[in-house]
Amino acid sequence: MVAYIIADTKIENPQEYEKYKKLAKPIAEQYGGKYLARGGELEMLEDDLWSASRIVIIEFPDMDAARAFANSEEYAPVKKIRHANARCTLALVDGG
Fold first, then answer.
1. Quick check: 29 and 75 in contact, CB under 8 A?
2. CB of 16 within 8 A of CB of 84?
3. Are 87 and 7 in contact (CB under 8 A)?
4. The dihedral sign for the CA sequence 86, 13, 27, 39
5. pTM given for the model
6. Phi, psi (degrees; rounded to nearest 5) at 57
7. What's the longest Cα–Cα distance across the chain?
8. How many CA atoms lie within 13 A of 54 on its CB side?
9. What is the rounded distance in angstroms from the CA atom of residue 66 to the CA atom of residue 29?
10. What pLDDT does 96 receive?
11. How far apart are CA 15 and CA 80, in angstroms?
C-alpha cells in the first residue's frame, strides 16, 4: 500500500536550498519515490492548526520504502543541506 512523505518547508536560503532539491530527488526516486507536488501554488482552505509555507508530497510504494529513503546513508548528507537552509515539518502518511 502506498505511503506519502509530506513536507512543509520554509526556505531560508533559496540559493543553497536549490542544491538540496537537485540532490534529494534522485535519491527519493531510487527508493521508488515519485514527486506529486513540489512547492507549487498553494491555497490554504482552512488553517486552524497551521499555515503552510511550501508543500512537497512524495509517494512511495509503501511505508518501508519511505522510511528507507528518509533514513538512508545516501540521503543523510543531503538532509543536512536542508536543515542548514530551511525549517521543515515532515510527516509520513500511510496511503491506506
1. no
2. yes
3. no
4. positive
5. 0.93
6. -125, 125
7. 37
8. 13
9. 10
10. 78
11. 15
CA nearest 82: which of 13, 35, 27, 33?
13
| Number of other CB atoms surrounding residue 47 within 10 Å | 8
Residue bearing cell 536550498: 17
Report the alpha-carbon distance of residue 87 to residue 50 in Å, rounded: 14
**Sheet (strand 3-11) strand order:** 34-38, 55-60, 3-11, 86-94
Which residue, 81, 85, 7, 4, is CA-closest to 42?
7
- CA distance linking residue 20 with residue 35, whole number of Å: 15
Q: Which domains does the chain have, with CATH numbers?
A: 3-39+52-94 (3.30.70.100)
Ranges of residues in the chain with a pLDDT under 70 are none
